[in-house]
Sequence to fold (865 residues):
Amino acid sequence: MKPFANAAGLSPDVISLRQALFLATGGGLTICGILLMVSILEGGGFTPAEWVLLALFIPLFGQIAFGFTIAFWGFLVLALGGERYEIMRTLPETGEAEPPGSTAVILPVFNENPSRTFRGLENMVLSIGQMPGGKAFDFFVLSDSNEPDCWIREETKWFQLCSRLNAFGRIFYRKRRVSLHGKSGNVADFCRRWGKRYKYLLILDADSVMNGETMLRLARVMDANPGVGIVQTAPQIVRGRSVFQRLVQFATRSVGPLFAAGSNFWHLGSGNYWGHNAIIRLQPFMEKCVLPELPGRSAADRHILSHDTVEASLMKQAGYQVWFAYLEGGSYEEGPPNLTESLKRDRRWCQGNLQHFWFLFAPGTAFANRIHIFFGLMAYLTAPLLAAFIGLSAWDHYWKAKFEHLSALSTDPAWTGSGQASVSLLRLTLVLLFVPKILGSIHLLPRAREFGGILRSIISSLLEAVLSILLAPVLLYFYTRFVILILLGIKVGWKTQNREDSSIPFPDALRTYWGPTFAGAFLTGATLVWMPSLTLWLSPFLAGLVLSIPLAMWTSSEKAGRGLKAAGLLVIPEEMSPPAILENLEGSRGAASSSREVASRAGILELAISPEVNAIHASLLRRSRVHARHREEYLAGLRQRLLAEGPAHLSHREIMSLLWDAGAVELLHREIWLLEEKNLNPCWRAALRD
Amino acid sequence: MDELAWDDACLRLEDYLRAHGVRPRERLLALTLEMIRQARGMHAKNPGKSPLETTMKLVIDRTDAWFSTLAGAPERTVRARVAFFSPSFQRKWASEFWVSSPPEELLAEIRNATIEAGPALDFQSLVRKEMDYGAMKDLARETWGQFSWSHALRAFLLWLVVVLVAYGAYLRFFA
Fold:
């Protein structure tokens, strides 16, 4: 058998065979489930409610069956020695003398912690600097931050980093005045300005880190395969501090590789793109992957929120392959610190994925991309479908039990759930749900030492399974709510992800999770009164809802997370032997100060006082050639108020108006040094003393 | 009272020089004394302004003029300021702050310093292409184009009646 030397040489027969195997496994399991369900329901003849139940059951069971299928094939691929068709295998073993194609490494940021972002960037610049061919890489921090303090601190960090590493001309910083179309608009803006200068675009998130060797290998694999448009890596989730983060990072390391290998097994060169930790061929990206407008009434409706899946589809339509380099190490990211932050992100993703519905039937979309889009849709649509299924099943069970009781008939096993078909379906469902987790644990065993040892890795897997079961109904509740809100047209804001503060205080937990708690308590009561025989079956579901407040609070705890780490539970290899690229990433939120206002407004206070910060900021602004008198009078008034009343008394818009004007910023600096203390607001006095 | 005001001016001036990274301390004190002396002279001629304001105006004007000299052209002044604050410059030239005739080496370094926030622009226009969404788009457009709540309500009631009649028929004849 010839080695896999070039992605272009991938035979269509291989793709067809793989997709046939994948669909046959998933489809076969789904048909088994449907047949069992039909035999359960037809016990007393089909009622309209049972037809609806069956209609709901098919997509729900299909989702579980295909999830299992991906994990199953992934396990087989890994157990049999790895994937033959893995894009990184096409890397030539020699020939590293040639520098790779010019690559722009971009970090789009939006009000992230600048300390953390720039420490990660520093590690990456140092790492690629040690590589032959590292000079082909330029780094761009593309800021859309609209928090003044964050903006100022980003600029200062950029300047300090460039000065420290003597990297002016290699590390760049760009702040957009109008943050049009969020992250996709940010990337498009980069492409418009500088896209032509580079061959490849390596896109990262603010919390992503990638080591130099991986960056270099990605650029080289693109060089070796001109027909490849995107190579997506599988970023490892690291630096988990809270229980929730540790849970996610462990899950992605135990079952994650199975799903990654299984995904690559069926899609091969028709993979998906996740929007970060991926390398993109710029020319076709700029020519063929400009995001289209969606059908919609308003401009906001027409804008695509989740751009990545669409871009992968457009790249494929343009004739380029999209690969998943799932075995490539050295690619990292961080997870949301707690359940609430994770739900915030899910709400954004939910809206984005639902928008992809339009592409599901669009002519020209490749088959594999339609499957990606469908899975993306089902990731969220499953929740309301499952809620409806559970509700209708309970309702159906209640009426049948009542009728049976009134008519004093003998117990029909199909109705009570004790029939052979019911048991078989239950067994099949449990197998499909839990076997991937068991396979994940088996996959870990040979490397158990890296996960804390055999016993601890097994306990970690069990703990992960239990917590996942308890969290699942909470996700179900919120996903159902998100889908309904979005379908009703209630807009979702593009909020910053809080990647730093983890703990959820009780009032916040109560405010967020009173809904699932109330729903859980009501359903528990209703089940106990009207359907006591179902209580035991529904107990994991009900417990997750009832316990959602303490669950959210406990999983957000960093103290508990540290306790688990100390006990060797939910640990990952990067914690046992941390790679250099992840060192010193802890970022401080702001400058330490005696005054609370000084600390919270550190950026803007420094801008006014520090000649260094002021000069950096002014140098990065474009100077207006027109000096309108009314504008200057307006800005003078703002400066006067800012100095007399402090930043807290100016609106966000007023502060941004000042900050976008280089002349006003320089005058502010001059005026603060000229004013006597008695004429300054106390916060300025404190800042001057600091 | 007046001496207290001069103390304030002196402290503010020291803070200002420290913020500019002036070192060593001996040079900082020497510059402070020199500027306070000049400010006292000016204040004697124009006592309307406070000692702090007189001193700091003198100081800031001198700083602006010094950076202008370093930059060589007004439009490059802000860049010269930024360059001066980079750690390598601070290590080498902090003690030269305000010197009346800056060394040639300092001038050359400042004027050649490259502090680029971005490479030269090379514009590429990104052209959005019309996407064919197929039949779903036409269906949606037709629905939205004709949608009204009263129509929707009437349709809902009609279908409700149909479903109830069908369910009744089922119960009556088939159940």
